[in-house]
Design brief:
This protein is α/β, with parallel strands linked by helices. The chain is built from twelve helices and eight strands.
Length: about 270
């Protein structure tokens, strides 16, 4: 895949991005926490014939600036909206994974004139009951283990991280493993201790989304089947809302079930085109 890369300054913060270019409709891809723009490479390769694909590194990730002490997760939304305007993108389709899905929803709600449509890969949509049902002690131990693993990446070589990634994620292709591993050596280690996630409940958000929306969830992902069904009942826009659940996948849906993921995306793109 051929692409260019560049930087923009948004309120003094450098945001790095990758772009396939061409006189085509724009398609913005927003990555999840600890990833970077190039983690979308396999998806971008499938889209680049039809779209000008833009893959930013969120602040604190990739080659973008590090986080500052006052950073809040909502800033990703304002930054990505500003990036879209700075690059002169007209009505882009925006797709986000996890943290990037939260940013995508934020753009659709706070800047409704910007996106043509949005696609959400396993956003952090959960009910209060689902959160309360978890064992707090077990959850904290899992978080501590996760944090320890993440902070330890900086002490490893790229090839060591790649090797560990292959073992931990046997369903992932080599095209997924390598950019994922590179991103783990680039993200700001202060990410989880510094970022304050203040995302409203999906119950509040869904009725405020007015553009066409595709929600892609997984059998073993964050969004339960009940939550996905509930989200569809909250939809108030006259624009289409579609929900697809992919079996055998976890939170990294596209990395584990790439063909099924892209089939769902392409069906939705056919629905909203031209």
């Amino acid at each position: 895949m051929n692409y260019t890369e560049g930087d923009v300054r948004l309120n003094g913060v450098k945001i790095h991005y990758y772009r396939t270019g061409g006189n085509k409709p724009p398609f913005v891809l927003l990555h999840g926490a600890t990833d970077n723009g190039l983690c979308w490479t396999p998806v971008a390769e499938k889209l680049a014939d039809r779209y000008d694909v833009i893959m930013p590194d969120a602040q604190g990730h990739g080659l973008s600036d590090r986080l500052d002490p006052d950073f809040k997760s909502g800033r990703h939304t304002t930054q990505m909206a500003a990036l879209i305007r700075k690059l002169g993108l007209k009505k882009p389709i925006i797709m986000g994974h996890s943290m990037g899905a939260g940013t995508t929803v934020g753009i659709a709600i706070e800047y409704p004139a910007l996106p043509k449509a949005i696609i959400l890969e396993d956003p952090a949509w959960r009910t209060e009951e689902e959160i309360a049902a978890e064992n707090a002690e077990a959850r904290n131990k899992q978080r501590e283990s996760f944090m320890k693993a993440l902070t330890g990446y900086g002490k490893r070589t790229l090839e060591e991280v790649i090797s560990e990634g292959r073992v931990a994620n046997p369903l992932w292709s080599e095209a997924e493993i390598r950019p994922w591993a590179a991103a783990k050596l680039q993200f700001d280690p202060a990410l989880f201790s510094m970022m304050r996630f203040e995302m409203p409940s999906y119950v509040e958000q869904v009725p405020r989304i007015k553009c066409p929306t595709l929600l892609i969830t997984a059998e073993n992902g964050l969004v339960s089947a009940a939550t996905a069904k509930h989200a569809s009942t909250l939809w108030t826009s006259e624009k289409p809302f579609r929900s697809v659940r992919i079996k055998g996948a976890g939170h990294n849906i596209r990395r584990e079930r790439f063909d099924e993921f892209m089939a769902a995306v392409n069906r939705f793109l056919g629905l909203i085109s031209p």
